[in-house]
């Protein structure tokens, strides 16, 4: 269980991560930046996770663009949660 203090810390971390990712990538992140930020070592590993529907967050396609994309906000929130998740 996450304490109130950890919750505040997690929100502050999420905001910092979002600011950094937004500055670098804008409102969406895709390609190598997306799969490496999520911890996948290769595009093939990421594609396999997409096929198996095991990605940790929602990704989407954009018409006339290659690859998958995620919202920078969602990526930042997922990363922050990873630091504070409890061992279950």
Describe this structure in a few short sentences.
This protein is mainly alpha-helical. It has 4 helices and 2 strands; from the N terminus they run αβααβα.
Keywords:
single chain, 88 residues, mainly alpha, DNA-binding protein
Layout: helices, strands, pairs:
Elements: H1 4-25, E1 28-30, H2 31-37, H3 43-52, E2 69-71, H4 72-84
Helix pairs in contact: 1-4
Molecular structure report:
With 88 residues, the protein is mainly alpha-helical. The protein has one domain. The chain contains 4 helices and 2 strands; from the N terminus they run H-E-H-H-E-H. Strands 1-2 form a two-stranded antiparallel ribbon. The radius of gyration is 14 Å and the shape is globular. The termini are close together. This is DNA-binding protein.
Helices and strands: which structural class? mainly alpha
- Tell me roughly what share of residues is in helical segments: 55-70%
From the spread of the alpha carbons, the general shape counts as globular
Give the integer mean of the pLDDT values: 93
Radius of gyration: 14 Å
Strand line-up of the largest beta sheet: 1-2
Query: What is the terminal separation in angstroms?
Result: 10 Å
Mind summarizing the main beta sheet? 2 strands, antiparallel
Number of domains: 1
Q: What is the beta-strand fraction?
A: 5-15%
Number of helices: 4
Low-confidence stretches: none
Task: State the order of secondary-structure elements, H for helix, E for strand.
Answer: HEHHEH
Can you count the beta strands?
2
Protein name: DNA-binding protein
Organism: Pseudoalteromonas phenolica
């Amino acid at each position: 269980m996450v304490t109130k203090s950890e919750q505040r810390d997690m929100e502050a971390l999420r905001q910092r991560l979002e600011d950094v990712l937004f500055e670098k990538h804008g409102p969406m992140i895709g390609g190598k930046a997306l799969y490496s930020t999520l911890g996948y070592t290769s595009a093939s590993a990421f594609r396999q996770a997409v096929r198996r529907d095991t990605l940790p967050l929602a990704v989407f396609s954009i018409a006339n663009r290659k690859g998958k994309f995620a919202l920078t906000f969602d990526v930042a929130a997922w990363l922050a949660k990873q630091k504070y998740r409890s061992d279950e």
